[in-house]
Amino acid sequence: MVKHCKDGAEGIELDKIINNDEAFFPLTSFDQCKSVVEKALIRQCTEGNGFQKPSPIQAQSWPILCKKRDIVGIAETGSGKTLAFSIPALSSMLSEGVKSGKRLPRMLVLSPTRELAMQVEVVLQEYGAVIGMKSLVLYGGVPKWTQAAELKKGCVDCIVATPGRLKDLINDGICDLSKIHHLVLDEADRMLDMGFEEDVKYIISNCMAKEDGRQTAMFSATWPAAIQEIAMNYMVDPIRLYVGFEGITGSNGENCVDDSLSANKRVNQIVEVIEDRPRENRLRELLRKYQKKNQRILVFALYKKEVERLEYSLNREGFKACSIHGNKHQAARTQALQDFKDGSCQLMVATDVAARGLDIPDVGLVLNYTFPLTIEDYVHRIGRTGRAGKSGEAYTFFQPSDKSHAGELQQVIKQAGQTPPEALMKFGSTIKKKEHKLYGSFGPRGGPMKKATKIVF
């Protein structure tokens, strides 16, 4: 079942969702939420954080999740997806009873990066404390024994984890996921791509089976067709909810959802076609221009070595820059992110490890020094600005070697109601057919290849 809620003239148009004989009415005010969500959690939203009303993704997903249904929630970056999946799960766990003494975790959130896992755990910690539930974050780059010691105490209700570290702890016999009722894949498309799929599959196999009542929720800002079939293997009749995306009409006259990418319309996208050599001088020109506005600037590069070189070069030129990339120790990554968030360093250079999910306040400019490998990563990168209803600006260097992405980039710009530059249009508007990740043009059409079978002669 698919439901889309599109951008209306005065914001997001919300409507009831009907699935077979079930109707899910959006919870457009916190007063309405009190009938299905724990009141203490609502007070934390209103009195603790000053929220006026649920965001569109929260308004539409809370009634679905509170009825124990599986969901795929797709909404723009900065739309409040973390609370969209956290509050119903915490409410459900509270209704089942807060257990004292030794217990097994009942909620698991899988995240693709350490920084995103830490950010989600902060939210779960804040709201869990209101109702007496404890959360724990598990990620690599730090000693395993401290995380293992917390798990052995047996007093953790919610786990937020990156796949690699969690798999290690499962294999060590330290982490028992057999009581996981609530499974969430945050940035689900990234979690299910070729880099994470096998680890995620192994982790889910250690959770409560979907046939035994496990509720699975997947949230992201992008939802490529190649991932959709994989995701269905882990869910039971999920409701797919698109918030803020334009709909299309199918042959039967029903509203369908355009699965093509849609960027945040509050982000002004500027694309400059440029050769490789002039890029660094142009970068410095733009940084001097935008730093006068006293706003945070996030520069994305593709490779770790490239980020290291840019950080060193910019600091030598008199800019105060910090960085996040995979070659840094976790303590240094955490410190760089904190410095950027609190404003003590207003310029950060990063790989795509910082592209997804991170909630950094008041990023005025995202600058793509190197174009990403996929158009989905481009959408996530520029989504670091223009968050929580604010406007932002994204500046992208597009080199001739990036021409295979020209058609997709033009489409994303147009769907945001903006006009692609003439220099970009000269590369043509053809969108290259997605190839199978393992078998290229020879792969199967419309989804992943079937699992290989062993032949015995």
Which features does this protein show?
globular, six-stranded parallel β-sheet, eight-stranded parallel β-sheet, alpha/beta, 457 residues, 16 helices, Rossmann fold, 2 domains, 20 strands
Describe the overall structure:
The protein has two domains: 2-98 and 167-257, P-loop containing nucleotide triphosphate hydrolases (Rossmann fold, 3-Layer(aba) Sandwich), CATH 3.40.50.300; 267-425, P-loop containing nucleotide triphosphate hydrolases (Rossmann fold, 3-Layer(aba) Sandwich). It is of the alpha/beta class. The strands form five sheets. The chain has an eight-stranded parallel sheet with strand order 1-12-6-11-10-7-9-8, with helices on both faces. Strands 15-20-19-16-18-17 form a six-stranded parallel sheet, with helices on both faces. A two-stranded antiparallel sheet has the order 2-3. Helices cover 35% and strands 19% of the residues.
